[in-house]
Structures are given as structure tokens and as C-alpha cells.
TrEMBL record:
<dbReference type="Pfam" id="PF00730">
    <property type="entry name" value="HhH-GPD"/>
</dbReference>
<dbReference type="GO" id="GO:0006289">
    <property type="term" value="P:nucleotide-excision repair"/>
</dbReference>
<dbReference type="InterPro" id="IPR023170">
    <property type="entry name" value="HhH_base_excis_C"/>
</dbReference>
<keyword id="KW-0378">Hydrolase</keyword>
<keyword id="KW-0479">Metal-binding</keyword>
<keyword id="KW-0234">DNA repair</keyword>
<dbReference type="GO" id="GO:0005634">
    <property type="term" value="C:nucleus"/>
</dbReference>
<comment type="function">
    <text>Bifunctional DNA N-glycosylase with associated apurinic/apyrimidinic (AP) lyase function that catalyzes the first step in base excision repair (BER), the primary repair pathway for the repair of oxidative DNA damage. The DNA N-glycosylase activity releases the damaged DNA base from DNA by cleaving the N-glycosidic bond, leaving an AP site. The AP lyase activity cleaves the phosphodiester bond 3' to the AP site by a beta-elimination. Primarily recognizes and repairs oxidative base damage of pyrimidines.</text>
</comment>
<dbReference type="GO" id="GO:0006285">
    <property type="term" value="P:base-excision repair, AP site formation"/>
</dbReference>
<dbReference type="Pfam" id="PF00633">
    <property type="entry name" value="HHH"/>
</dbReference>
<dbReference type="InterPro" id="IPR000445">
    <property type="entry name" value="HhH_motif"/>
</dbReference>
<keyword id="KW-0004">4Fe-4S</keyword>
<keyword id="KW-0408">Iron</keyword>
<dbReference type="GO" id="GO:0140078">
    <property type="term" value="F:class I DNA-(apurinic or apyrimidinic site) endonuclease activity"/>
</dbReference>
<dbReference type="GO" id="GO:0005739">
    <property type="term" value="C:mitochondrion"/>
</dbReference>
<keyword id="KW-0456">Lyase</keyword>
<keyword id="KW-0539">Nucleus</keyword>
Amino acid sequence: MTTPIVTRKRLSVVTSPYFSTSSITTKDAIASDLDSKNKESSSKKLKREQIKIEYEEEKEKEVKKLDGNNKKQKNKKEEKINYKEEVEETEHNNKIKTHINGVSLAKINWREVWDKIKIMRSENLAPVDTLGAESFNQSHIDPIEKRFHILVGCLLSSQTKDAITHAAVTRLKEYGLTVDSILKIDTNKLETLLYPVGFYKRKAIYLKKIAEILKTKYNGDIPPTFKEIEQLPGIGPKMTNLIVQIAWGRVEGIAVDVHMHRISNRLGWVKTKTPEETMRDLESWLPKENWGEVNHLLVGFGQTICTPVNPK
């Protein structure tokens, strides 16, 4: 009798990520996992809260900074307003101190200043004293020729130092300074004699034209009136006043050059922008008996004491 063979049915092993024979989840494992997740969640929550706190702190700093800037701007505006008020108050006080009934104290007290300038001028020899337009008024030569010398000297003096003007007139005299000699001289030669006078080329042309006008209209002499002299080429109001005063002995106005314009404003006698404005202003209040002296007085004062830079 044969023994029956018993075969056992082999169970297949099912593998699953959730069910594994190698790692069966226990209660302890589940509890550990939950605890780990809770810790992780708590850590993330703390981190988020920390970030929120830092953000709020940063935002608060920006707000404070903005408030600080606004306060600074406000303070600056207040400072500007206060400064403006102080300036206006100072200007008002200064105006009270320097004006009486709208008239400058400098004009009211001009005589006192005038006398002091005369004393200072007497102690300092200026170029205008020996080399100015008055130096061409030489009594020993023919009157017509003398008046022409004065006109030429005034024409050349514009924007030129007295020493340079005087040297140029001296060269012209050596050549022959008459209306006829100027008409005959070559323009290039005339320019050479005038150099380095300011704008010597232009002045050579003016001098030629003036000589022609004097020859044809005034018999070689200079015009006798202010209006006629002023109409000559290159002759302005300042030169005309000097020519009329020195050549004809009449004072019809105040000769104002850049020196007089600068000094008159510095003294407070006028408040003007151009020599022509200064001339009109001075003539409106300065006594006429002082008109003939004021140019020579202030020009020399400007050359020696009240210089443009670093006045003494």
C-alpha cells in the first residue's frame, strides 16, 4: 500500500506600500510619526510667526523713517519761512537806517563824502592827473589844433588806460596831428601809430571819418555844440561832455565812464546799471557847480584808492 503524498499550497506574498511583511506599522510607530509631524508643524508655525514679526518690525521702521523725513522736511520749511522773515526784517531795518523819506542817506550826506575824497585825492597822484584828457589842453599851440588834439585824445581814451592813450597821442603828434595830416595818412600807418589802444582798427576808421567831416563842415575845427560833437563817429555822451568842457570851456553835463559808474554805485549815490543811467541820476541831484569836477575827482579816486578789487 502506497502512502499518499500530501502537498501544501504555497501562499503568495503580496507586497504593498501600505501593507508589508517587512515593516508592519505598530501603534508605537504611528504615535512616533504623529509626534514627528506635530513637531514639524509646530516648527513651521514658529518660523512663520517669526517671519511675520520681522516683517512687521521692518514695516514699523519704514514708517518711522518716513515720519522722520516728513518731520525734517517740515522743519526745513519752517526754517526757510523763519529765515525769509528775518531777511525781510533786516532789509526793512536797513532801509530805515539808510533812507529818510525815501532818499538815500548817501545822497543826503554826499558833501561830507565828497570832502573826504578830495583829501584822499590830494595825497595820491593818479594817472588821470598827468595823462588824462586835460593833458591835451596845451595853451602854447594853435587853438584849432589844440581842440582837435583834445577830441582825438577823448576818442582814443574809450576802454583804454590813460598811459596808453597818452602814448598814442604823443606818437600822432610826432607824426603830425592835424586834420590835414590825418586825411593824408595811410590807414595801415595810422593803425600802427594807434596800437595798442583798445579797438585801434575801428578808431582809425572813426578818426579818418571825423577828419573828413571837420574839413568839409567846420573848416578844420571841431563842432561848437554838444549835439554836433555827439553826432561824430565814435563819440558818445561821456566823451562829448569832456570835449565840450575841456575844448570849449563849458560844463553842460557830467562825463561818466566805467570808473565813475562803479564808484558812484559803491558810494550809494546812485543805484544804476549803465554809465548813461548814472549820468542822468547824478545830474538830477548833484549841484551843477560840481559837475565839472566830479569826473576828475572820482576817476582818480578809482584809479588809486577805490580800485575794482581790494579797495584801500
